[in-house]
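haha ok so turns out i had the wrong file open the whole time. this is the CORRECT one, sorry everyone. sequence first:
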Amino acid sequence: MKVEQIYTGCIAHAAYYIESNGEAAVFDPLREVQPYIERAQIDNATIKYVFETHFHADFVSGHLDLRKKTGADIVFGPEAKPAYDAITATDGQIFEVGNYKVKVIHTPGHTMESTTYLLIDQLGNEHGIITGDTLFIGDVGRPDLAQHVVSDLTEEKLAGHLYDSLRNKIIPLDDHLIVYPNHGAGSACGKMMSKETTDTLGNQKKFNYALQEMTKDEFIKAVLTGLTAPPGYFPQNVLMNIKGYESLDTIMDRATKPLDPAAFEIIANETGALMLDTRDAEVFAKGFIPNSINIGLDGNFAQWVGEMIPDVKQEILLITDPGKEEETITRLSRVGYDFTIGFLKNSFSSWKESGKDFETVTRISPQQLEAEYKMGQPLIFDVRKKSEFLSEHILGAINVPLNEINQHLAQFPKNKPFILHCAGGYRSMIAASILKQRGWQDFSDVRGGFAQITETTVPRSEYVCPTTLL
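then structure:
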């Protein structure tokens, strides 16, 4: 049986495609559905079903657009209550895709409607399980997300359901089955996912902590310990997946409006739109529109947009590298940011050539930081995650994680210089752009971040064992 995993690294997401005898099915598609349509066309196949493992929080699924464009039926598992026409399957129900069969296994816990799909080949042999966020490689889905949407659920209740689902529905399955999860390392839907994106269920029974012998209380404690707060956009994405959303075609029509500098400035002032600059941090530092925010397209773009822009309905004006406009709009829409209203034609160069004011961020090398240290300890802010900071950091540095910066602005002085750094320079430039927007001027950012600082003599703390981390 052939199962094609279609992996998108920037949001650590895996969709799946199967085809048999001219019929195809897609599992957990992304917002842009044309690649799935084109894939089916290669096989001269009709997409018969769009299977959803649950109402996703970290991205907006493409199920509605895929149904609109292909006529496919949308399938959810038991307890799903979408606000649009879809098949709500029963536990154990079987769907036929050509000569293949897809069996519904209701596995509540990550969410109450969470469902695993058992894949059965043309000979009747069980091949694998598409597990959504029920089971990852090395981890399980966090059970604290649905409570933000359904008020009578608690993370403890959901974790208890997940324990039962794993013990009663997943562990009894054969060891040879291939596990096809919805996410890999880097997703915020779990806490310790492997970089591997498939494995055998037998291996997971041996090495996945959540599948080991333990009581329900021990399991609940294990899966809830160490969870950080989910990104603020997660509940909004869940509601979009439940209630429906605008077609990506409509979003593209609204967003792909090239604006000259004068029109861009007028619209920014009239609408209060967020000016989002997606160019590389080094390029952004050399010149950018005042009050714009930098989140580079070549980093964990969707994740940081979701972390730093609290409202998915925020209107956005884009400054991108030339030719990157549609890609940026698409990647914003993947996580529910559908209200881009235009972009700066010919990028920042047109703004600069028009003679309009612009700002810069001072960047220093790790060697310059080293020289400053020799003259006296400078004030340093480390915007990496707490776990990164506790693992190793510059002696005397202050940790303000990037996703908490707006709650800790008072820690940054305006009457003395300071230095920012992150792991490699991506996150610290986001922080720098936010500080510039809020009126801070006397600071610099370390090019290359902590990775290159470790190659200097700048004093650092000793390693702290991760088992001591909260």
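The chain has a mean pLDDT of 94.
again sry for the mixup
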